[in-house]
Amino acid sequence: MLLQICVSRTLDLEARIAAPNLADVDLRDDMGRYEIAEAGRHLQRLVINLRFPVPAILRRFDTIGELIVRLLIQSGREGYNTFIKELRGLDCETLVLRSMWTVHQFEPSMLHLLRICNGLKKFAVTLRCSEVIFACTSDCPCTWPESYRNDNISLDSLEELEINGFTGKDHQLDSVNLLVNLLVGRNAPLLKGVVFHLPPRDFLKCSNIIRDKIRGMLPPGLELWACLENRKSFGLLDELNLYA
Q1: Radius of gyration of the chain measured on its C-alpha atoms
Q2: Cα separations (Å) of 45 from 176, 202, 225?
Q3: Residues 6+ apart with CB under 8 A from 154
């Protein structure tokens, strides 16, 4: 009984897959050579490189429990606009967003994903470690005012925001400010807290920055946590309550 599929560039073959109980797909390459002929309409977990054209597998399932996305979007106005038009409503409970270090349209793409995800309870984002190496061109989505509109984003089900890769740099603070302004108040009424995952070597410095520069952005009563990444495995965390 097939429950999991992992597709990587090392596989040079075509396949027709019948998996009525399929629950987990790790898609590291183009799915065009593979056809999922028999499967349910719900997927527990999907790991995908999101690029143009939008992978057809996103239209294969009605609901996805956890969607893990790495943004690899073609730059330029035409490629980005086509990507936005093709990527429509998604039903998922958890959205995990990652990006290449130098991708320009990260924040606009992030806002679009939040706009189209229905029933989202948890959003986890990994911030860019370094600033964009190349300056934005005139047709880069980062320069368009409309890219940052959030008046049509409503995250009624969102309960938790998780921020990874935070090292306290100015461009990361800008991204956090964008998220906080979006997610608090009317856009995410059920939001319980914001969780920062911090590397051990930068823990003290970053926790102080969170206290000094981020806590003041949040409304009273919203939980703010800083978590130390365990040295043995990612995701096993030692928690520090900043309200204590």
Answers
A1: 19
A2: 26, 31, 26
A3: 187
Question: Rounded CA gap, 142 and 161, in Å?
Answer: 23
- Name the DSSP letter for residue 231: S
What the block records as the tokens of 149 is: 């509109």
The pTM score is 0.81
pLDDT tens digits along 110-149: 888 998 899 999 999 998 766 555 567 777 777 777 777 7
Task: Specify whether the CB–CB gap between 91 and 63 falls below 8 A.
Answer: yes
* Token pair in block for residue 67: 């969607």
> Hey, what amino acid is at 196?
F
Q: What are 26's strand-pairing partners?
A: 6, 47
Q: Which residues pair with 193 in a beta bridge?
A: 160, 223
Phi, psi (degrees; rounded to nearest 5) at 214: -110, -40
